[in-house]
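# step 3/5: fold
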Amino acid sequence: MTILDMLPGQKARVIAFTNKTTETNFLSFGLLPNSVLLLRRKAPFGGSLYIILESHVMAIRQSEAADVLIEII
């Protein structure tokens, strides 16, 4: 399951990353394995996804969201 499969308002725990480039970018932002995130909203027409990680709000592309494996909590 990836962030793309989440519904707004759901919380999830990061399990792993499927792309090394995306993993490097997210690790530098503090999105680590076992981090808990909340999907705030999905922009219409295939736009960005807005996630809350601790007290930070991040907008990520759908292609990046597809590289993050999660489990819903």
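# step 4/5: annotate
DSSP finds two helices and five strands in the chain.
# step 5/5: archive (pending)
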